[in-house]
Amino acid sequence: MDAVCASALVGNEMPIAADVILGSNVTIFHSDLVNLYGCTIGGDTRIGAFVEIQKNASVGERCKVSSHSFICEGVVIEDEVFIGHGVMFTNDIYPAATTNEGTLKGASDWEVVPTLVKKRASIGSNATILAGLTIGAGALIGAGAVVTHDVPDYAIVAGVPARVIGDVRNNKQ
Amino acid sequence: MDAVCASALVGNEMPIAADVILGSNVTIFHSDLVNLYGCTIGGDTRIGAFVEIQKNASVGERCKVSSHSFICEGVVIEDEVFIGHGVMFTNDIYPAATTNEGTLKGASDWEVVPTLVKKRASIGSNATILAGLTIGAGALIGAGAVVTHDVPDYAIVAGVPARVIGDVRNNKQ
Amino acid sequence: MDAVCASALVGNEMPIAADVILGSNVTIFHSDLVNLYGCTIGGDTRIGAFVEIQKNASVGERCKVSSHSFICEGVVIEDEVFIGHGVMFTNDIYPAATTNEGTLKGASDWEVVPTLVKKRASIGSNATILAGLTIGAGALIGAGAVVTHDVPDYAIVAGVPARVIGDVRNNKQ
């Protein structure tokens, strides 16, 4: 039975890799239902179930990363940002499984296109963020939006592609 | 080895919390790959993998909740409803990680905006349902739609934002 | 303790069912965080976390299936295809939880509508693919697109519904 139990333990522990840097008081609601590796998570941040955060991604302090979201390599999220459920970041304009020669792509076969989400921005559920963009401070991305351009500070954007429809300073009390 | 095994057991059992109320004959295909807490699930309902259902959410009888979907607090789903894959409900118009003062938001810092999905409605995969809406009986929400207004009974809606494009009584045999 | 350990083992092992046919050198990054059953996965293909692949689905060789994606029964994916994160396939035009008589739908109560993704196509994150379509060889589906019509070989499509916006032979070096 020893081997069986050891195997079960590994299976539960691996989804948070040893190289993840967690600030103080980070809450991960189900550590066996996330996949975090090589990333940095700031203090007091909360992370839901079914979240993947890749290496060389960084999440600030007092953020909330909701269930089913994916934060890829090259994404920097500042403090107090809200990431809704099912939000997908991207870091590649022309993704592919293989090189033009048909061999598997490795880490050296593409350049990560970085994304920045500034302080107190809020990204609605099921939103998709294309590679290489900056989401402004305090901006609000509507649920289901596909963001294809930079978003100004405090802008409210929605739709596919996302367009500015308001300013949070006029809409939130 | 005892501590190891006990820990493994907790890890597998916790994703269905003790306060979930399950009707008779509910099927949860992978109980270790869901996150259900404080919710009510009606009899004969089937729930796929990677599903999260929050406290104070209610799913009726003979429903199907497909993989990767998220049903949040404040959502009431009546009987015989189909929820596709990757469907995201929301309960907040202006989501945020922190209060305006920069402290973490707690349960008392926001008001849940309720959503009602009426009997035999069907919600397509990757659809997003904004907060505060009613989806009518028998309505069909197209895959990938972002629903921003109430949907009448038996309406077919699609697109971003979702618009009425038909009536299920004319389209289904 | 024996029963406890055995149960933990079952919980970890079941998400890859015994009837899955895996080619040589398939990489599944977290075998305890996927749900694969009755499907065929070609050699050298890589599969991320929180992926579900159903029975009678087929994925070719040297593909990449990214996290949070769902590949349903009736989908055939050829070689060297890239599937982004949160991609949802569908196989039913009028999904429903129950028959018109209100009884649970079983396998015999609907006809699977097949989908084909041809060699070297690339499907962006959070894209939704309606049932019954063919995605052409080398085609690029933009992130967040909802694909409602066949996509020609080498076409770039984006939006909701997805429309042709370019040709990969002109856009990729």
Structural features, described:
- Three copies of one chain form a homotrimer.
- With 173 residues, chain A is mainly beta.
- Helices cover 9% and strands 27% of the residues of chain A.
- Chain A contains two helices and 20 strands.
- Chain A has helices spanning 2-13, 168-171, and strands spanning 21-22, 27-28, 35-36, 40-41, 46-47, 52-53, 58-59, 64-65, 70-71, 75-77, 82-83, 88-89, 115-117, 122-123, 128-129, 134-135, 140-141, 146-147, 155-158, 163-167.
- In chain A, the strands form four sheets. Chain A has an eight-stranded mixed beta sheet. A six-stranded parallel beta sheet of chain A has the order 1-4-7-10-13-16, with no helix packed on it. Chain A has a three-stranded parallel beta sheet with strand order 3-6-9, with no helix packed on it.
- In chain A, a hairpin with a 4-residue loop joins strand 19 and strand 20.
- Chain A is globular.
- The termini of chain A are far apart.
- Residues 1-13 of chain A have low confidence and may be disordered.
- At the A-C interface, helix 1 of A face helix 1 of C.
Q: Tell me about the biggest sheet of chain A? A: 8 strands, mixed
Structural class of the secondary elements of chain A? mainly beta
Distance between the termini of chain A: 59 Å
State the low-pLDDT regions of chain A, or none: 1-13
Instruction: Count up the helices of chain A.
Output: 2
Secondary-structure element string of chain A? HEEEEEEEEEEEEEEEEEEEEH
Tell me how many strands of chain A there are. Answer: 20
Shape descriptor of chain A? globular
